[in-house]
Amino acid sequence: MSLRGDYSHAAADFSVEQDWNSYGIEEHALFRRLYERQSKLAPRYACPEWIEAIARLETGGLIPRFDDVSKRLRAKTGWEIVAVPGLIPDEAFFTHLANRRFPVTVWLRKPEEFDYIVEPDVFHDFFGHVPLLFDPIYADHLHEYGKGGLKAMRLDAVKMLARLYWYTIEFGLMHTPGGIRAYGAGLISSGGELAHCVDDPAPKRLDFDLEKALRTEYLIDRYQTTYFVIDSFDQLMRETVPDFTPIYERLRALPVLAP
């Protein structure tokens, strides 16, 4: 779409209109190919909560209409999705989350980016992030994360909080009765790393440790070498409830950990 990287039509909160009719036949077909590929992997590698949630979306054939999905989300968890032209500033992003609005990119990658894209597109955001917004506990956690992000801005601690987002919301793993499974959007939407994060013996899979996650740098251009594994979304919510202010102060005196 022409909106890729075009912020000239964005509102003050960086939202735009989806303009669903502007998607072409080729874009819908590419979205369907991506959706079908990941749908074949998900039963083996995604956590049960995500598998249950994706069934609520009833999509896959076409790029979804955000308004239709938002109606279902509002009825279930009070969330909605808002269209954005790409990555948006921290304050706008945190403000959306704090108001139960999840920013979803409007444009779709090109065919040559089928296996890897350097920035989020509508497939990553929708297939990876949106399903778990139907899970009440996860949805509440993301809401609290948004409020925490606005606080982290005041405390000059966004870098630390961004590491938590990376190792949970984007690349988080979970212990399940069937073994370790993925719930992070960056894994769920990846054709290669979804299997890698579960099956490959090379990465470290550490039990979730809040302070260690806040201190650990991450890789943006290759598969992760370290993952954090939660027991449940209840645990994630419980362990991220405390006031981070004293934690930030304590961690400033400690070295950042390598990925």
List the helices and strands and how they pair.
Elements: H1 25-45, H2 48-54, H3 66-77, E1 80-84, H4 90-98, E2 101-105, H5 122-129, H6 136-154, H7 158-170, E3 173-176, E4 179-182, H8 185-188, H9 193-199, E5 204-207, H10 210-215, E6 226-230, H11 233-239, H12 245-252
Parallel strand pairs: 1-2, 3-6, 5-6
Antiparallel strand pairs: 3-4
Helix pairs in contact: 4-6, 6-7, 6-11
Task: For this entry, give a set of tags.
259 residues, globular, 6 strands
Task: Write a brief structural summary.
This protein is of the alpha/beta class and 259 residues long.
Task: Describe it.
This protein is of the alpha/beta class. It has helices spanning about 25-45, 50-55, 65-75, 90-100, 120-130, 135-155, 160-170, 185-190, 195-200, 210-215, 235-240, 245-250, and strands at about 80-85, 100-105, 175, 180, 205, 225-230. The strands form 2 sheets. The protein has a 4-stranded mixed sheet with strand order 4-3-6-5. The chain has a two-stranded parallel ribbon with strand order 1-2. It is globular. The mean pLDDT is about 95.
